[in-house]
Amino acid sequence: MIRAYIFRMRPTVGQQGLLTAMLRDHCTLYNAALQERRDAYRHASKTTVRYGQQSAQLKDIRAFDVEGQGRWSFSSQQATLRRLDKAFAAFFRRVKAGDKPGYPRFRSRTRFDTVDFPKDGDGCRWDANPHDPVTRVRLQGVGHVKVHRHRPVVGKVKTISVKRECRRWYLVLTAEQDLPKPLPETGSAVGIDMGISHFLADSGGGFVANPRHGARAASRLQAAQQALSRCKRGSERRRKAVEAVARVHRKVRRRRLDHAHKTALNLVRANDFIAFENLKIRNMTRTPAAKPDPDRPGGFLPNGAAAKAGLNRAIADAGWGVFLTILTAKAESAGREMIAVDPRNTSLKCPACEHTAPENRLTRDEFSCVSCGHRAHADTVGALNVLRAGLARRDANPA
Known about the structure:
- By secondary structure, this protein is α+β, with helices and mostly antiparallel strands.
- It contains ten helices and 16 strands.
- A seven-stranded antiparallel β-sheet has the order 2-6-7-1-5-4-3.
- The radius of gyration is 26 Å and the shape is globular.
C-alpha cells in the first residue's frame, strides 16, 4: 500500500529564496508549455502538441539555460509538463461527457505552490538517518534542507513533493509499505448517518457533535478579508493581509482534519463493519436554477437561493467528503469492511414496521411512524436503516 507523510521544512533564508525561484521557474515552464499548445491549435491548422514532444524540448531548453531552467531537476520539470498534460486530458474528458469544459488556465506565480519529484534519488534525496536527530532532504539547485520529521517513515520512499503554504514549506513523501496487521475483531457493526445539526449519528443511538469550525472562525475571517480589501495591490501591506487570511483558512482546515481523523479512528477501532450513505455531495451543494418570471420579462421568481446557500455552506463546513475519505483509508489499513448504501428514504422508513412515508418525519430531528407509532430520533433511524441496508448488501454479495 502507498502512504503519504507530510513534514514541515526548516529552510534557511537563502534556501527560501532558492525554493521560491524553483517554484517560479516551474510556473514559467508550465505557462510556456500551455502557450505552445494554444498557439499550435489556433495557428497551425489545429495541431495538437503532446507531452512527448514538449518533454523532448527540455534538453535544448536546459542546454541553453533558458530563463535559468538548467539548474533544476529534469525529472521535476517533466512532472510539471505531465501536470499540464493531465489538465488537458481532464478537459477533453469533460468535453466528451458534456460537462462544463474548464479549459486549462495560466498559473500565477503566487498560485503555483507545488513541485513534484517522481522518484527518490532523481533530483532529490530523502536522507533520514534513524540515529541522527536532524533529518534533511537534498534538492537539486537548493541543497540540503532541514526537515522536522515528527514520526518515522515506514517503507520505501517513492515520490517527493515540495509544497508552499503562505510562508511555510512542507515536504510530502509517498512510501510503499506492506499492509499493516489488522486490528483485533470486535464483533460489532455500525451504520452512520451524516448530518448538519450533528456531525453524524450511529445506529446505536450515539451522536458526534458538529464542531462547525468554519462558522466559529467566520468573524475572524471576515475581519481579515475586510482588511485585505482596503490594501493597495502590490504593496507590502497587502502581502501581509493575504498571509493573515491564509492563516485563518489554514487553522480551520487543520482543525477540520483533526476532528475527522479522531472520529474516524474511534469508529474503526470499535467496529468490524461500517455502513455509510453514498452521498453525492456535489449534487447536494449545487446552486438552484433560476426561475424566470413569465409576467416580467427579464425578471425572476424567488428560488430559495439564499437558504440553499446557507445549507451549502454548512455542508462544506462539515467536511463530509474529507471525513469519508479518511474513514475509508483507516478502515482499509485496519482490515475493516465498509459498504456504501443508497441514501434514499433512509430517514423516512420505519425500522420497526418498514413503513415508508414523508409524514413519518415530523421535524428535522423527530421521527414518528404513522403506521405503528414508533418514535425515535430521525438521524438514529437513518443510521439504523443504513446499517440494515449495508448488512443486506454484504450478505447478498459475499466476498
